[in-house]
Amino acid sequence: HVVTTAVEHDAVLAPARRLEAEGFRVTRLAPNRQGFVEPAALEAVLDEDAVLVSVQAANSEVGSIQPIAALARAAHGAGALFHTDAVQALGKAPVDVVAWGVDAASFSAHKVGGPKGVGALYLRARTPFEPQAIGGGQESGRRSGTQNVAGAAGFAAAVHAACGLQEREAARLSALRDRLYAGLAAHDAVEATVDVAPGSVEFLPNIVHVLVRGLESETLILRFDLRGFGVSGGSACSSHSLAPSHVLHALGIDDDRAHGALRISMGRYTTERDVDAFLGAVAGVLDWS
């Protein structure tokens, strides 16, 4: 029995589907309306057959930061191992695999400005692990293949920089996030997808997600692009898809509203001037002529 959530990245959902096809029982927990997976909901589905729980540390679309330590305790209480996809959290929110008590955690370099195609897997001591790439026995037999030393070094440098700036950047970006939400709320056609209180640390500081009535995501993306702004309708990894986001479906948002989803993400080089310029373009995007 494997337990995950309905709002995971496809990097987790796709392997879960494969395990299901191979005979594993897979449970996909739904979050609450704000995107949080509640420990009590996890405890309710854990049984003596549970072997693995995988819950993302933070959602890449709406920004909800999960209570990983409490979820890991629930999994361990049922005798299951716990993995977290921490790709979206690294450099944006506090990450402490020891304090979380997780058995495994996944990270990716490109989310902190490192080289693309490089990742890291944290494994707690004595966590069972079966390599998927076998052959030469590199990386202590965990992943065979000639190591990408330059990529690993670049990842390490990027993590060092991002984590060193994390607290300061989180404060700066959360102020910009709150400014965006407030400015967008001034338009009747726009509503926040989740309730992010000003200064909230329960959501990522760099993501704003709204629903726009009367316009589809693709139209919004094209119009903002013509004004010089890059936005998306969901996860950046699924920007090629026009289907409503599985995350929004899991939050209970119907197709009509989900088709008007707009995700605005910010980074280290986003400024207050950029945010104000974006807000200044919104009225023209909504009333195109």
Summarize the structure.
The protein is an alpha/beta fold and 289 residues long.
Provide an overview of this structure:
This protein has 289 residues and is an alpha/beta fold. The chain folds into two domains: 2-157, Type I PLP-dependent aspartate aminotransferase-like (Major domain) (Aspartate Aminotransferase, domain 2), CATH 3.40.640; 167-286, Aspartate Aminotransferase, domain 1 (Alpha-Beta Complex). The chain contains nine helices and nine strands. The protein has helices at residues 10-21, 39-45, 68-77, 97-100, 149-185, 217-226, 246-250, 255-258, 272-286, and strands at residues 2-5, 26-29, 52-54, 81-85, 104-108, 119-123, 190-192, 207-212, 261-265. The strands form two sheets. It has a six-stranded mixed beta sheet with strand order 2-1-3-4-5-6, with helices on both faces. Strands 7-8-9 form a three-stranded antiparallel beta sheet. Strand 3 (52-54), helix 3 (68-77) and strand 4 form a beta-alpha-beta unit. It is globular. One of its GO terms (molecular function) is iron-sulfur cluster binding. InterPro entries: Aminotrans_V_dom, Aminotrans_V_PyrdxlP_BS, PyrdxlP-dep_Trfase, PyrdxlP-dep_Trfase_major, PyrdxlP-dep_Trfase_small. Belongs to the class-V pyridoxal-phosphate-dependent aminotransferase family. NifS/IscS subfamily. Its EC number is 2.8.1.7. It catalyses: (sulfur carrier)-H + L-cysteine = (sulfur carrier)-SH + L-alanine.
